Amino acid sequence: MLDKIRNKVLSGKRLTEADALKLFQSNDLFPLASLASYVAEEKNGKKAYFVRNRHINPTNICVNRCRFCAFSRSIGQDGAYELTIAEIIKKLKQGRAKSKIPFSEVHIVGGLHPEWPFTYYLELVSTIKKNFPKLHIKAFTAVEIDYFSKISGLSLEETLTSLKRRGLGSMPGGGAEIFAPGIRNRLCPEKISGERWLAVMAAAHKVGLRTNATMLYGHIESYEDRVDHMMKLRRLQDRTGGFQAFIPLAYHPKNTDIQGSYTSGIDDLKTIAISRLYLDNFQHIKAYWVMLGEKISQLALKFGADDIDGTIIEEKITHSAGALTGEQLTAEQLSDLIIKAGRIPVERDSFYRKVRRAQ
Amino acid sequence: MKKTRQKKHTVKKRTRPCIPTSDRITKKEALAMLRSADLLDLGMTADNMRKQLHPEGIVSFVVDRNINYTNVCINKCTFCAFWRDEDARDAYILDKETLFQKIEETLDLGGTQILIQGGLHPSLDIDYYVDLLKSIKARFEINIHGFSPPEICYIADSSDLTIREALRILKGAGLDSVPGGGAEILSDRVREILSPRKIKSSRWLKVMETAHRLGMRTTATMMFGSVESAEDIITHLDAVRELQDRTGGFTAFIPWSFQSGNTELGAKGKGQRARNKKDQRSKFKVQNPVTAVEYLKVLALSRIYLDNIDNIQASWVTQGLKLAQVALRFGANDFGSTMIEENVVASTGVSFRTSKQEIINAIRSAGFIPAQRDTCYNILRTFEEGA
Predict the structure, then answer these.
(1) Which of B100, B128, B301, B380 suits a disulfide with B124, CB 3.0-4.6 Å?
(2) Domains along chain A with CATH numbers
């Protein structure tokens, strides 16, 4: 069964949705891994990337109540928090003062705050840029961008352009979850539809912002839903080419409404491998270690991934839902994981360019 | 291959070789594989061997509790965070009331076995152990898997008995089987660094051989990822395989990786890494923590090399459930124990806790049929879908 798919891959033909589904249903773990590794090497050689980054979550107050989320709170609720711009700048300064080599990227995502105006976000971006001109700002999921456009009355493109003008460098890929409407309505009824998510990304790509794309799997979706999700991403990528990396996110069950269990390590690795094979127009597949665990992320480098994200430093969203990992890894630890997996570690910037540093 | 489950505590005269002896890999081949084989190639070979040995697709586990009767230990191994001096404030010997209560709870949870292990306590002699075993057996019907070879030797030595005499007395008092701990790495060069006061390799093997000859089944373990070389790992595997050829008494092999937290050796490794080199006085270098790739390589090689041992355990306690699931495709066919209680690994700060139900779910979602087994790997109950 795999032979047909292997031949297709080796001769550079695209896999169909039926092929991807077959791979999910198959138990042939090792041929799948070899094939995905082969493709990863074709695309990125022996390299595996990491980045010195820091996460900031400005608030956990959110108007949406996604059933898989353990992070969100209402105003005044126990555990609700809001960071001022000054507090965020302070966090960034502290972080940069602590390490000899400063992080090169800040990753900012947060809840949809019912009271903050769009100007808060504009000011946040421009203040960071003013304080740290060289720091790359990767911020705001498609869900947040859509929300900003609603509260500001601006179009998507206008919203994105005004953020970009103030220093937004690129966008993460969160909020995609699973596009299939039936599942999406049960998972996150208040959240924008899959179509809208894709429309925001198309707009971002159009104004020249590169983005990532994610998929949250392992909750109530079927393999068909996963394939459908990847199909929609591949289609948009054909049109825009604006996605940098695809990041499958393993569902975490703790403190969420839908509960259930953690995904199996084998499912995590298969999902990485299948995405590498199916998403032939994505340059990078990222094994995000916070959600997969550093052990499975390292193994993912043998299953088609070429990126394990970064130093992170502080992580709140996955940790609210029972993350099994710590909140940070050092660049040395990330390199060690990559080398032991037989790959060459490359510290990248936010556009996958090798970071060169004077000794 | 026809699968015959062992009846309790009998030792086969000679184990049937799982693959023809002529196809056995040699030490030299194994070393080359460990050093340079690709992880996926090793995994696929091990996975195929596991399928041949266990074609039913069952992954077993035992419901048990680790009971550590004392943490006082004269060995003070550098990789251990559990030991205390006799006069330490938190030194303890478990009283019987607590012990019985722990056993009762274990039985209530469907447990079939207790693993009793402790430190080498200078004030306890064989009478203590005999009384301990007898008092348990008088009250409970439960398998006692107890006393790793360093303890057996210490008990024998401090009562002027031979290993054989000590084992016979303990067996007579109710000891059913012997856990494979204390093997660490069966290379005296490494033991000299890790645990200079612990029994040497030959004595560890002697205890196991004697236990097997007395009709007791045992397991064998290996702790890797500290200061050993690839050669040392192969030496270890070969010693176990050679003994198993002669006795057939090992039920399972359990490799796990050194957990460095709160240990002398861990602190040393950290210091060496901080200085970015081994210190001048030190003759060895402590390795970086074992990563998933290295764990799976050693696990897969164990499955391949130990063709005469039926079962290979994945260590979820040290590796976490997700990697343990992946290990089931890299040669492992057993998930160890539910560990209602575990103290030794937990003292290094690593604590993957889990319930029987989580273990069943984990095995199932990895694509296998979960089954509860007894100490000798007889299947007691399978948990089909929906159970």
Answers:
(1) B128
(2) 18-344 (3.20.20.70)
Give the pLDDT confidence score for residue A211 in this predicted structure: 98
Packing angle, helices A223-240 and A194-206, rounded to 10: 20
Measure the CA–CA gap between B146 and B155, rounded to whole angstroms.
13
- Residue B47 sits at the chain A interface (C-beta within 8 Å): yes
Give the rounded distance of the alpha carbon of A7 from its chain centre.
Answer: 31
The per-residue pLDDT for range A277-299, each reduced to its tens digit, is: 999 999 999 999 989 999 999 99
Quote the pTM value. 0.91
Task: Please check whether residue B128 is in contact with residue B157, taking contact to mean a CB–CB distance below 8 angstroms.
Answer: no
Tell whether A25 lies on the interface with B, counting CB pairs under 8 A: no
CB–CB of A37 and B40 under 8 A? yes
- What whole-number distance in Å separates Cα of residue B383 and Cα of residue B93? 38
Backbone angles phi, psi at A285, to 5 degrees: -120, 125
Q: Say whether residue B293 is in contact with chain A using an 8 A CB cutoff.
A: yes
Which strands sit side by side in the sheet containing B113-117, from one edge to the other? Answer: B64-68, B113-117, B143-146
Amino acid identity of B71? N
Q: List the domain boundaries for chain B.
A: 23-382
Round the average pLDDT of chain A to a whole number and report it: 94
B356 part of contact set with chain A, CB < 8 Å: no
What amino acid is encoded at A151 in this protein? I
List CB contacts (< 8 A) between B326 and chain A. Answer: 265-266, 269, 296, 299
May I ask the CATH architecture of the domain B23-382?
Alpha-Beta Barrel (3.20)
Q: What is the SS3 assignment for B343?
A: coil
Find chain A residues with C-beta within 8 A of B295's C-beta. 295
Cβ proximity of B176 and B375 under 8 Å: yes
For B133, half-sphere exposure in the C-beta direction (CA atoms, 13 angstrom radius) is 22
CB B170 within 8 A of CB B147: yes
Q: How many CA atoms lie within 13 A of B212 on its CB side?
A: 25
**ipTM value:** 0.92
B357 shares contact with chain A (CB less than 8 Å):
no
Residue B289 has pLDDT above 90, yes or no: no
Asked if pLDDT for residue A357 goes beyond 60, the answer is yes
Label residue A323 by pLDDT band (50, 70, 90). Answer: confident
Q: In which order are the strands placed within the sheet that holds A53-56?
A: A53-56, A105-108, A136-139, A168-171, A210-217, A243-250, A284-285
A37, A261, A341 member nearest B365 (Cβ) = A261
List, for residues B53-88, the tens digit of each pLDDT value: 999 999 999 999 999 999 999 988 888 888 999 999
Give the start-end residues of each E strand in B129-170: 143-146
Are the beta carbons of B365 and A33 separated by less than 8 Å? no
| pLDDT digits 0-9 by tens, B299-349 | 999 999 999 999 999 999 889 999 999 999 999 999 999 877 776 666 666
